[in-house]
Design a protein that fits this description.
With about 525 residues, this protein is an alpha/beta fold. The protein has 18 helices and 20 strands. The protein is globular and about 70 Å long.
């Protein structure tokens, strides 16, 4: 087995991994970035399913460390598609000449802390091994697909696909009988895209969604010039807003002082924006006050109902048992209209769960649905799933996956007590696990991690570990805010409820991106107080 010595090993070549590679290499460290995929892009490599696109405005979903890179790239539309996003990351990798430090087709199977040497021993499935002082996980918060198993699945003679492992060469579904299991953000994109292409589309729905109508449009030269003029402001301001976008929300308490008509006007304005502003741009009480949430929920229900011709179908597609925003809010284009088509069929698998496969399709409530292709859009083991699939062992051989099976813990989503020099970007209990414009939060975390490593070098130190006290302090703060919201009352992947046996804890910090950054900055200014540095 070949062994490579390096200062730092970065796992994942997506948004965070590429930036972390750049920051550490720029600081003079020997660093390698590895990824299981045959190409860079992370999520945007694997998720190449029909209709895949951003739900963050593209002019906010990019790197901010280089004004030259910012000015050279021009997005074609407000919400860019997967191929364009992937081209963007290749453009950045080319500009920064990152390729020599990237190892693709390399899946990590274990990472063991060697206390004597003060380094991580990392082994890949293909037989390579690294010895690294610092191990930085950039594996992504939504990169461990959940693929359900049904009785007699092997009997099915058709094709089974998962949206997170879509064939890179694509697949022709025209004229096919296609089933989609799952109607989350991904399922919605697939369904609205395939509805007009396939012969018949069967949508197996368990939980209906409050989807917001996307306002997408081509970006003009005038748009590019405007956003370029905003670069200095945006580079700073995105890190101070609640969700890491260009908009912010009023202070807590403002909604209660408004009249119902004033609140309705804000909801309408945000709805017309056609973005996630409808979710994290109205007022914070939507996620905390049941009466205010009821107003927002009824508002969105009415918008959905107006799009669907058949009242019985509308009744099934409109959520009733949870409030708006307590599930992940998708953006859609013609999703609800798709159910007005004769070739699109809604199957309620909440009332009657999928019984299993036949050779020709799926059985639900004693009825066989004949299919040529079945697509699982069933989501992920979020936050902890990807890193838990690696055998990570810290002090005294403590297993990270076993720890997280008992209790999902971290310090700011950046480190876990008992695992020195392991840094986690988009780890659990940070905003980036769900409640943030991803590029905003990922870059902020990479910068903090880089500064921590540079601080150790300046102090002549080589190891950093979150103290048990600091970790407990963060968990208590995180949980206190989580319990003050309505999010904990809804069973969703936000709380790990989609994975059987997963400990229940809100996976994402919901105190706001700006507040989180202030907390991180204060720790940095106080010489990383709460972290044991030796």
């Amino acid at each position: 087995m070949s062994v490579t010595k390096t200062d730092a090993l970065v796992i994942g070549a997506g948004v965070a991994g590429l930036y972390q590679l750049h920051r550490l290499r720029q600081a003079g460290y020997a660093v390698t970035c590895i990824d299981a995929a045959p190409d860079i892009g992370g999520t945007w490599h694997w998720n190449c399913y029909p209709g895949a696109r951003l739900d963050s405005p593209s002019y906010t979903y990019q790197y901010w460390f280089s004004e030259d890179i910012y000015n050279e790239w021009e997005w074609s539309e407000r919400f860019a598609t997967q191929p364009e996003i992937k081209r963007y990351f290749k453009f950045v990798a080319d500009k920064l000449d990152l390729w020599p430090n990237i190892a693709l087709n390399t899946r990590i199977k274990s990472a063991i802390w060697d206390a004597t040497a003060g380094e991580w021993r990392v082994a890949s499935e293909c037989g390579r091994e690294w010895r690294a002082r610092y191990l930085i996980s950039c594996v992504g918060m939504l990169s461990a697909p959940k693929t359900p198993l049904f009785p007699e699945q092997d009997r099915f003679a058709g094709t089974v696909l998962h949206t997170a492992r879509w064939p890179q060469e694509g697949i022709d579904l025209r004229g096919k009988r296609v089933g989609v299991v799952g109607v989350g953000a991904t399922g919605i994109q697939v369904i609205q895209t395939l509805a007009s292409e396939v012969e018949d589309l069967y949508v197996f729905q368990r939980t209906p969604q409050y989807a917001v109508n996307m306002n997408n449009y081509p970006l003009t030269q005038k748009d590019h010039d405007f956003w370029r003029s905003q670069y200095p402001t945006m580079r700073h301001s995105l890190h101070t807003t609640f969700g890491g976008f260009e908009w912010n929300i009023p202070e807590v308490g403002v909604a209660a002082e408004m009249t119902p008509e004033e609140r309705l006007r804000i909801l309408e304005d945000c709805w017309q924006d056609g973005s996630l502003k409808m979710w994290v741009g109205t007022y914070p009480e939507v996620l905390a006050d049941e009466a205010i949430n009821d107003e927002a929920s009824e508002f969105v229900r009415a918008k959905i109902r107006a799009r669907i011709d058949d009242p019985a179908i509308a009744d099934k597609l409109i959520p009733k048992h949870y409030g708006f925003g307590t599930y992940r809010v998708p953006l859609e284009t013609n999703y609800y209209d798709a159910f007005n088509r004769n070739n699109v069929h809604l199957v309620d698998v909440k009332a009657h769960p999928i019984e299993g496969f036949t050779a020709d399709g799926l059985m639900v409530d004693g009825q066989e649905y004949a299919l040529d292709v079945l697509i699982f859009a069933t989501g992920f083991d979020a936050g902890t799933g990807a890193l838990s699939r690696v055998d990570v062992r810290g002090i005294a051989g403590q297993s990270l996956s076993e720890l997280w099976r008992r209790d999902i813990r971290s310090t700011l989503g950046l480190q876990v007590h008992g695992f020195p020099n392991l840094f986690t970007v988009a780890g659990p209990l940070a905003p980036s696990t769900a409640f943030c414009n991803m590029t905003t939060c990922l870059q902020q975390q990479v910068d903090w991690i880089t500064d921590a490593i540079l601080y150790m070098r300046e102090q002549g130190k080589s190891q950093m570990e979150a103290s048990a006290e600091k970790e407990e302090e963060w968990i208590q703060h995180h949980d206190e805010i989580a319990e003050s919201t309505l999010l904990m009352k809804t069973n969703s992947w936000y709380t790990g409820a989609n994975i059987e046996g997963k400990p229940r804890r809100l996976l994402s910090y919901v105190g706001g991106v700006g507040v989180y950054k202030e907390i991180c900055e204060e720790i940095r200014a106080n010489h990383f107080a709460g972290f044991n540095i030796t």
